[in-house]
Design goal:
By secondary structure, this protein is mostly helical. Helix 2 runs parallel beside helix 15 and helix 18 crosses helix 20. 68% of the residues lie in helices and 2% in strands. The longest helix has 50 residues. It is globular, with a radius of gyration of 26 Å.
C-alpha cells in the first residue's frame, strides 16, 4: 500500500503547496496593485484639485504669516516617489492582512489577531502609536523655546514600564480580556464599565481629530500643502487598511511606519547636526545660552516644569496611556503568552528613552543652528518668523534641505507615518470598545437566552460590525479635523479637558487591582470626585489664560499647577476618596466581608492578602497565565 499510495499522496501534497503559494502570490499582487491605484488617485486628488480655501483666505481664528516663496522648496519628483511609496506600502500591508489566511472572519482574529503575536512587533506598534506628528513637531519646539529640561521626562519610563509589566498586564492577560474595561465590570459593576468606555470613546475621537489636524496645519503654513488634502489622505488611507485588515494590519503597518519614522528622524538629526557645526558646537551654543537646564529641583507645584514634576508627574501622565488605555492594552493582549506580553512592555523602556532622546536632540540642533553667531557677533541664520513654535522643525527642513531631492519627501513621510500609526491604533481600539463594551452588553440584555446555533452567525456579524465601526470612527475623525479648522480653539479646549481624565481612570483601576477592600460604591464615588477635580482644573486653567497662552499669575493656585502634575492630583483624589468611601459604605451597610476573585488582584499582592480562601485550589502564580482558579478571597475590614 505504501509503495502504491505514497507517491500519489506526495504528488497531491506538492500540488496543494504550489496552489497555496500561487494563491498567496496572487493575494500579494492584488493588494499591491490596489494600493498603488489608491495612492495614485490620492496623488491626483492632492495635486490637481483646487483647494477649498484660497491661499490668502485664513480660517477663522487662524493667523497666517507672509513668507517669501523663495525661502521654501516645493516637492520634486523624488519627493513624490518617496511619499507615494510610503503610502503604497502601508496600504498594501494592511490590505494583505485583510485577505490572507482566509481573511478577517472572526472578531478574535479581527480585533485580537488570534492572540498569536510575538513581543517585538507588538512593542514597536505600541511605541509607534505614541510618536505622533504632534510629538515629532512639539518636543523639538519645547526644547527650542524652554531648554532641554523636558528631556528629563525619560526617567518617568523607569516607573511607568515596570509598573505596567509587573502589576497591570498579568491581571488583564490572566482574565483573557478583549477590552480593558471588561475588568471594571468583573471587579465592580457594569455601570462603571460603560462610563469608562464612553469616556474613552469621547476622549480618543477628539484626540485623533487633533492628531490629524495639527500637523496638517503646520505643513500648510510652511510647505503650502492644503490642510484638507493632508487630513483627507491620512484619514482615508488609515481608515481603509484599518477597517479591512484588523489588528494584524494595524500592528504590521505600525512596524513599517516606525521604520520610516526612525530612519527619517536619524537622517534629519544627522544632517542638521552637521549643518549646525557638529555635536560639540551644538552643545557649546546651548550651554552658552543657559539652555542646558537639565535639573531643576524646585518643589513648588506651580513651577511650569521641574525634575520632580517631569519624573513623578510624567509617570502618572504616561501610566494611564500604557497601563489602562484600550489603545495599548489591546495590543499587549494580542501576544501569544504572558511572557511575550510582558516582554513587549519591557522592550519599550529602551525604546522610549532612545526615541525621546533623538527627538529632544533635534530641538537642541535647531536652537544651535538659529543662535549661531559669526566673528562679529551677528546671527548667521535668523530665526524664522513662525506663527507657532511647532513649525520650527518644518521650516528648518524646508529651508536647509529642501533643495536635496527626496529629503522633504522623507520628512513628510515621517510626519505621516506618526499620524497613520496613532490614527490606526485609535480606530481599532474605538471599534473594539464600542462592540465589546456597548453593543454586546445591550444585546445580551435584550436577548438573555441566545440560541446555541446562532453563535457562529453572530460572530460573523460582529466582525462586519467591527469593520463598520472602524469606518464610522475614521469618517468622524476626518470630519472633526475639518471642523477644527473652523473652531480650532474649541477642539483644543475639549481635547485638553478630556486629557485630564487620565488620573481618575488610573485611580479607578488602582482601586480594583491593589485594594481588595474597595467596592463599587467607593470606586464610583472616588472616580466621580477625581473627574470633578480634573474638569475643574482643566476648565479653570483654560479660562484663565493670558495673551501668551499661559495661565495668569493671578489665577487660583489650583489652576496654576504644572500641567505635568494634573494626573498626580486627580489620581490621588480618586484613590483616597474611593478607599474612604468603600470603608464608609461597608460600615453603613454592615457588610463584614468583601469577596474578591484573586485573579482580579495583581499577582504580587495576592500572597499578602488576608482572609479565608474558599475552595482549596491554589492561587495562580504571577507567571502562569494559563492557570485557572475559582477561589474567592474573604477580605475582612
Amino acid at each position: 500500500w505504501c509503495s502504491a499510495e505514497l507517491p500519489e499522496l506526495m504528488r497531491i501534497r506538492c500540488c496543494d503547496q504550489k496552489s497555496m503559494k500561487a494563491e498567496k502570490k496572487s493575494e500579494v499582487t492584488w493588494c499591491l496593485g490596489v494600493s498603488i491605484a489608491v495612492c495614485c488617485c490620492l496623488s491626483v486628488l492632492y495635486s490637481f484639485l483646487p483647494p477649498i480655501l484660497k491661499a490668502d483666505q485664513p480660517t477663522q481664528g487662524e493667523v497666517r504669516m507672509a513668507v517669501a516663496k523663495e525661502e521654501f522648496h516645493s516637492f520634486g519628483a523624488v519627493d513624490f516617489v518617496i511619499f507615494g511609496g510610503m503610502l503604497a506600502v502601508t496600504a498594501a500591508t494592511g490590505l494583505y492582512h485583510a485577505f490572507s489566511g482566509g481573511g478577517q472572519r472572526t472578531t478574535s482574529r479581527y480585533l485580537m489577531a488570534d492572540r498569536s503575536m510575538f513581543s517585538l512587533p507588538v512593542a514597536i506598534s505600541v511605541l509607534a502609536s505614541f510618536l505622533s506628528a504632534v510629538t515629532i513637531l512639539g518636543l523639538p519646539s519645547e526644547i527650542f523655546v524652554y531648554g532641554v529640561q523636558y528631556w528629563m521626562v525619560i526617567w518617568c519610563y523607569f516607573i511607568t514600564i515596570p509598573v505596567t509589566a509587573v502589576f497591570f498586564i498579568p491581571v488583564f492577560h490572566g482574565l483573557g480580556l478583549t477590552s480593558a474595561y471588561e475588568y471594571l465590570e468583573q471587579r465592580f459593576s457594569m455601570s462603571l464599565r460603560v462610563v469608562a468606555a464612553c469616556l474613552f470613546i469621547l476622549q480618543n475621537t477628539f484626540y485623533i481629530a487633533v492628531i490629524l489636524y495639527a500637523p496638517a496645519l503646520a505643513l500648510e503654513t510652511v510647505t503650502k500643502f492644503a490642510v484638507w488634502k493632508t487630513v483627507l489622505i491620512a484619514g482615508i488611507v488609515t481608515t481603509v487598511y484599518t477597517s479591512l485588515g484588523g489588528m494584524k494590519a494595524v500592528i504590521y503597518t505600525d512596524v513599517f511606519n516606525f521604520c520610516v519614522l526612525f530612519v527619517s528622524l536619524v537622517t534629519i538629526v544627522v544632517m542638521g547636526t552637521v549643518r549646525a557645526g557638529g555635536i560639540g558646537r551644538v552643545w557649546e551654543i546651548n550651554s552658552n545660552h543657559s539652555h542646558l537646564n537639565f535639573f531643576d529641583f524646585h518643589l513648588d507645584p506651580t513651577t511650569r516644569l521641574s525634575f520632580w514634576s517631569l519624573v513623578l508627574g510624567g509617570a502618572f501622565t504616561t501610566l494611564p496611556m500604557w497601563a489602562v488605555s484600550q489603545t495599548s492594552v489591546q495590543r499587549f493582549l494580542t501576544a501569544k503568552s504572558l511572557k511575550e506580553a510582558r516582554r513587549s512592555v519591557w522592550i519599550n523602556l529602551p525604546g522610549n528613552v532612545i526615541m525621546v532622546t533623538l527627538v529632544a536632540f533635534a530641538g537642541m540642533v535647531l536652537f544651535a543652528f538659529y543662535n549661531a553667531t559669526n566673528a562679529k557677533g551677528q546671527t548667521t541664520h535668523p530665526t524664522p518668523n513662525y506663527t507657532s513654535p511647532d513649525q520650527i522643525l518644518v521650516y528648518f527642513v524646508s529651508e536647509e534641505f529642501g533643495a536635496i531631492p527626496g529629503i522633504q519627501g522623507l520628512f513628510v513621510s515621517c510626519l505621516f507615518s506618526g499620524t497613520l500609526s496613532v490614527a490606526a491604533s485609535g480606530f481599532n481600539a474605538l471599534a473594539t470598545v464600542t462592540l465589546v463594551d456597548i453593543i454586546r452588553p445591550i444585546r445580551s440584555q435584550r436577548r438573555r437566552l441566545a440560541s446555541p446555533g446562532g453563535v457562529s452567525g453572530q460572530e460573523a456579524k460582529d466582525t462586519w460590525i467591527s469593520r463598520g465601526l472602524s469606518l464610522f470612527y475614521g469618517a468622524l475623525a476626518i470630519g472633526l479635523a475639518f471642523v477644527a479648522s473652523q473652531i480650532g480653539s474649541l477642539i483644543k479646549a475639549t481635547n485638553s479637558i478630556f486629557g485630564a481624565l487620565g488620573g481618575p481612570m488610573l485611580g479607578l483601576f488602582t482601586l480594583g487591582i491593589f485594594f481588595p477592600s474597595a467596592n463599587t460604591g467607593g470606586a464610583l464615588t472616588g472616580f466621580t470626585g477625581g473627574m470633578s477635580v480634573a474638569f475643574w482644573m482643566a476648565i479653570g486653567a483654560f479660562v484663565n489664560k493670558d495673551d501668551h497662552g499661559n495661565v495668569s499669575n493671578n489665577a487660583f493656585w489650583l489652576y496654576r499647577i504644572s500641567f505635568m502634575l494634573y494626573s498626580v492630583f486627580t489620581w490621588l483624589i480618586t484613590v483616597v476618596i474611593g478607599y474612604i468611601a468603600s470603608y464608609l459604605t461597608r460600615k453603613a451597610l454592615s457588610l463584614k466581608d468583601n469577596t474578591v476573585n484573586p485573579k482580579l488582584i495583581t499577582p504580587l499582592c495576592r500572597p499578602k492578602l488576608g482572609g479565608n480562601i474558599q475552595d482549596d485550589s491554589p492561587l495562580p502564580l504571577p507567571d502562569d497565565d494559563t492557570a485557572e482558579t475559582s477561589a474567592l478571597l474573604n477580605v475582612s475590614d
